[in-house]
């Protein structure tokens, strides 16, 4: 997870949840882990926000449940 964080921070800056989640999803699936990629949305004031994260066996990986809990899941792979 540390290497994924570093790689995406260098290549994508601040808004990196989707590339970070895609990379982590790919790495975990390559290891045979039961990873799920989730994408959610939230409307804060008049702005629609989105976020992507990974769960393994129901636990949030490389993110926090507090952060992901702010979003309604619209896609689960």
In a few lines, what is going on in this structure?
The protein contains three helices and four strands. It has helices spanning 2-12, 17-30, 65-68, and strands at residues 35-44, 47-56, 59-61, 72-76. Strand 2 (47-56) and strand 3 (59-61) form a beta hairpin.
Description:
This protein has 77 residues and is α+β, with helices and mostly antiparallel strands. It contains three helices and four strands; from the N terminus they run H-H-E-E-E-H-E. It has helices spanning 2-12, 17-30, 65-68; strands at 35-44, 47-56, 59-61, 72-76. It has a four-stranded antiparallel β-sheet with strand order 3-2-1-4, with helices on one face. Strand 1 (35-44) and strand 2 form a beta hairpin. The relative contact order is 0.20. The mean pLDDT is 87.
Instruction: Please estimate the helix content.
Output: 25-40%
Count of individual helical segments: 3
Strand content: 35-45%
Radius of gyration: 12 Å
Write down the oligomeric state: single chain
Give the SSE layout.
Elements: H1 2-12, H2 17-30, E1 35-44, E2 47-56, E3 59-61, H3 65-68, E4 72-76
Antiparallel strand pairs: 1-2, 1-4, 2-3
Task: Write a concise keyword list for the protein shown above.
alpha+beta; 3 helices; 4-stranded antiparallel sheet; single chain; 4 strands; 77 residues
